[in-house]
Design brief:
Blueprint: E1 16-22, H1 31-34, E2 44-48, E3 62-70, E4 76-78, E5 80-84, E6 87-93, E7 106-111, E8 133-135, E9 141-149, E10 158-163, E11 169-170, E12 178-180, E13 190-192, E14 200-201, E15 204-211, E16 217-224, E17 227-228, E18 239-243, E19 250-260, E20 265-274, E21 294-297, E22 306-307, E23 310-311, E24 313-322, E25 330-333, E26 345-348, E27 361-371, E28 376-378, E29 385-387
Parallel strand pairs: 14-20
Antiparallel strand pairs: 1-2, 1-3, 3-9, 3-12, 4-8, 5-10, 6-7, 6-9, 10-11, 13-15, 15-18, 16-17, 16-19, 19-20, 21-26, 22-23, 24-25, 24-27, 27-28, 27-29
Length: about 400
């Protein structure tokens, strides 16, 4: 359970940003300093602007990070101290990038699981207090505290104090000395632009993504059908060479997974249809039709029937089915052609790109008559036929 007082208890919580990762843990609080994005996007992000915030409870293990800018009242040497109920540590720096500490800045102190203290025990252990640090009035200084809680039920606290250059103790540091630092978790705007979803591709093609702001991108991983295509790309431009000859003909999903510099994840994908020539295809025996371009069929008995002035059959659909299957691999509507003098309908589909949108193999064609109210009548299948390249 989380009930924390940071940089102030009760009335001294104003001006602090709190990020909480519920259900996460760290071997050491400093791991989040070395790698600020190791835990990804926080479960919650709050700017603590009121005096009382201990009513916020988080169940289970968690990691919390608190960040605030210090408003230095007077130039001088400042020793810091802090209290915590468990494993915690505090750092100071001249920027919010705590993984790159400025000279003279750095680690202030820690509390371990074996040395917890109450909210008022500021000097029980030597590790709670820092050496004096020279701070200049008007300078930019930032405090960051990391708390790792592995106990699901314990009530937690953490507070930071200092001694002013005048000798006055402020324990905890009052809200008037603090300004919240809100982290940027904006997700980078990215998309695959070199190929479009539904596009027919063959041989080799380049898959590239556009990025609105490359400074927010840490790395990009490309995948085809869930399989990584090489290692992560850690610098722009972000692209890879897709060799479709290593894929079977048919549909494939091309995906990118981008890690943001702030720990965010951005994904995007397109579905492409691979259509490479196949020279070694051995058709099955039996003289099946190959790559048909047209069909003729007996129309529905209700082809010319009107119901309250509305045609009973509105249009026909054509579908390619695997042998014995109940659902088509691909289907499309082709309107309502006229009946020929022999009582049949002929439909030429040579301009349809179905050859590039289906795996090679043996299929049967069925025609469906669709009524104005959505009812369907399905024809018997044709003889088996082959789709080859």
């Amino acid at each position: 359970m989380l009930a924390i007082s940071l940089f102030g208890c009760e009335v001294y919580a104003q001006g602090v940003t709190r990020e909480v990762w519920v259900g996460k843990t760290l071997a050491n609080p400093g791991d989040l300093i070395t790698n600020p994005n190791i835990l990804g996007i926080p479960t919650t992000i709050e700017t603590l602007t009121t005096g009382k915030f201990s009513s916020v409870n988080v169940q289970g293990p968690f990691v919390a990070r608190y960040t605030a800018q210090l408003n230095i009242p007077v130039t001088g040497d400042y020793p810091f101290s802090f209290t915590a109920s468990g494993e915690s540590a505090v750092w100071i720096n001249t920027t919010t990038n705590f993984s790159n500490l400025t000279a003279g800045m750095g680690f202030l102190g820690s509390v371990t699981l074996s040395t917890p203290v109450t909210i008022t025990q500021w000097t029980k252990y030597a590790g709670q207090k820092s050496a004096k640090i020279r701070l200049v009035k008007g300078g930019g200084y930032y405090l960051q505290a990391i708390q790792v809680e592995k106990d699901a039920d314990k009530v937690n606290h953490l507070a930071v104090g200092w001694q002013l250059a005048t000798g006055l103790f402020e324990r905890p540091i009052p809200s008037s000395r603090l300004t919240a630092v809100v982290p940027d978790y904006t997700v980078p705007t990215m998309a695959i632009t070199s190929v479009a979803s539904g596009q027919v591709v063959s041989n080799r093609t380049t898959v590239a993504i556009s990025v609105a702001d490359v400074t927010k991108v840490a790395a990009v991983q490309f995948q085809v059908d869930g399989v990584n295509q090489g290692p992560e790309i850690v610098a722009a431009p972000y692209f890879f060479d897709l060799d479709t000859t290593k894929l079977v003909n048919g549909s494939h999903v091309v995906t990118f997974i981008a890690r943001g510099t702030n720990g965010s994840l951005t994904t995007g994908s397109v579905t492409v249809f691979v259509a490479n020539a196949v020279s070694n295809y051995e058709p099955p025996p039996g003289g099946m039709p190959v790559n048909p371009k047209a069909i003729d069929f007996i129309p529905s008995p209700e082809h010319n029937v009107l119901i309250n002035g509305v045609p009973s059959v509105t249009f026909y659909q054509m579908g390619f089915y695997a042998l014995g299957a109940s659902s088509p691999v691909i289907a499309w509507s082709f309107g309502k052609p006229n009946i020929q003098t022999d009582g049949r309908i002929r439909y030429d589909f040579s301009n349809q790109p179905y050859l590039y949108m289906m795996p090679l193999g043996v299929y049967e064609i069925r025609v469906t008559a669709v009524s104005f109210d959505g009812k369907k009548g399905l024809s018997d299948p044709t003889v088996p036929l082959q789709i080859v390249r």
